[in-house]
Design a protein that fits this description.
The structure holds 2 protein chains of 2 kinds.
Chain A lengths: L1 H41 L6 H6 L3 E6 L10 E9 L4 E14 L2 E10 L1 H36 L1 H12 L16 H34 L1 H16 L5 H31 L6 E5 H18 L3 E6 L4 E5 H17 L6 E7 L2 E7 L27 H11 L3 E7 L2 E7 L1
Parallel strand pairs in A: 6-8
Antiparallel strand pairs in A: 1-4, 2-3, 3-4, 5-7, 8-9, 9-11, 10-11
Helix pairs in contact in A: 1-3, 3-4, 5-7, 6-7, 7-10, 8-9, 9-10
Chain B lengths: L1 E5 L3 H13 L3 E5 L2 H10 L4 E5 L1 E2 L2 E2 H10 L5 E6 L4 H9 L4 E4 L4 H17 L4 E4 L2 E4 L4 E4 L2 E3 L3 H12 L4 E3 H9 L5 H21 L5 E5 L3 E5 L2
Classes of the chains: A alpha+beta, B alpha/beta.
Amino acid sequence: MLITALVISASGWVLYQIANTFLENQTQAYFTYRESRILSRLSEPVPDLKLLNSFRSQRVVPVTSVKIPTQSKLERDTMLLNDMSGDIEPFRARTFDAEVNGKVYRINIFVGMQESVLLNKFIIQSAFYIFLALIAVLLLLNYLSSRFLWRPFDHTLEQMKHYSINQNQPLVLLPTTTQEFKDLNRLLSQTIARIEHDYRNIKEFTENISHEVQTPLAVIKAKVEMLLKTDNISSGQLKALNAVYQSTSRLSKLSKTLGLISKIDNQEFTNKEQIMLKPFIQNILYNFEELAELKNVKICADLDEKASMYIDGYLLDVLLSNLLKNALSHNFANGEITVRLQSHRLSIINTGQPLNFPVEQLFDRFRKNPDKPQSLGLGLAIVKKICDMNNLAINYHYEQERHIFDLSF
Amino acid sequence: MKILLVEDNPDLAETVVNYLRQEGYICETARDYKTADEKIIVYKYDIIILDITLPDGNGLDILKKLKHNYSEAGVLIVSAKNALDDKVEGLHLGADDYLTKPFHLAELNARIQSLMRRRRFRGHDEITLSDIRVNTTTCQVFVKDEEITLTRKEYELLLYFISNRNRVLNKESIAEHLWGDNIDMADSFDFIYTHIKNLRKKIMGKGSRVNIKSVYGMGYKFISE
């Protein structure tokens, strides 16, 4: 639009200049013609000044005070009364002195400029109207093209916007006859096919690794266990074997947990149902009761009857168990855990030392309390992942020696 | 007592078989689906330990066949997959128990024994070890014919010890047996200590000859004589 405006005004300006130059030349030619006519009349033996001055558009006055011409050619624009039309109109005036036969005359010639002004006005006006018309046409074209021509493109855009590699939905693109769109769609389809292929590979790899690694680990574990059973091993060997044993367990747990995360990521838990939270939480709390007792942690539960959540049951179990496990293991001895369930909000509050790392890293993978090197540091990462995949908001803050996790659903 | 182990990994199969033989079981192995399929038709087993992922087939099909033939064998599924679906499907098809790899041999042993008890006594079951008698149906425990009251975990712990008597049990396997994944390992060791202390007090209080000995840096050993 801006470019059109620029082009139009530029062409208007060029037209104006050309017209102006043409008019200027015309005027100059006219002046020259009149000048030579006046001069030839003056050069007659007896110049008839009366006749010359009878034309309103010229005035010849003999100058007696000087012997040589003092005034060179002077041109100026002026406004004069045109007695033909009775209006004040622009005129171009040329004034000069000329010496003819020893006499000096001051000569004024006037040329009406009304036509040129009108012409200019006309040029500007027509440029403006053309501009308006062009804009209208452009808008119309734009509208039509976006409505019909760009439809496949818009459709492709829309598809891309809603495309998610997790969803496993093929990209449906509109067939089109436009070569560029054909190319675009083909390229997109190819790229997406490639990405999906890679994605599936990675997914398979993660899943495979998380179970394939378990059998060798089982071998290591069983072998170590057999070794531990033999009687004649030194305490040093015992220690070493124990370390191998524990690391094996850790490794196995690690790969199982990462496998779980990738499964959540791949949305493999799809048995969503409306779950009544109170009995569900009570059941989990029952499992934790004994552990809490051992640590002398008091669990208070204030649970709303009607609260429910639409989620996969297994994921909910993982989610809540992880949060409670977290609340229990990062607690003081003789501490407290409060579980408060409201209609759209679940708060799990536990006493404990403040975090010794930035809060933003709380849900990061492998972010763990340095005092607890045995923990995997994946519990809250799983919690976060489950929340993200199920549109639950989880918030954390620390207040009065208490860690507070708020889950809104 | 005859056990068939269906497991494709030779190392694991060998170790498990050795272990089970030491426990006094007669143990055979099948390395693939075909062999397993033949063996269950030809022989009769009390317990079949079944790996689901086999190179030439799915272990669950063997389970289906067993159930189709009204086999009496107890089936313990062992799988590398942690997948809930496999577990649910396996148990739904009639498997008696499910264990994920890697497992503690002691845990495997405990599961086999529990399975054995359920099979053999059909709910009427008493285990006697030295002067301790456990009724697994009513969950009552007697020391020198006097009943002692145990908490749920103490009871589970005692059974686990009895299944694996006279052998060092490491803390980790005890923790996993009692609490599964629900616990931070570091905390669990203290908890185990508390439980064992209480259990020991209750048993020794009645003057039992059995004892739970701690083995430094390793775990605990249940000594019956």
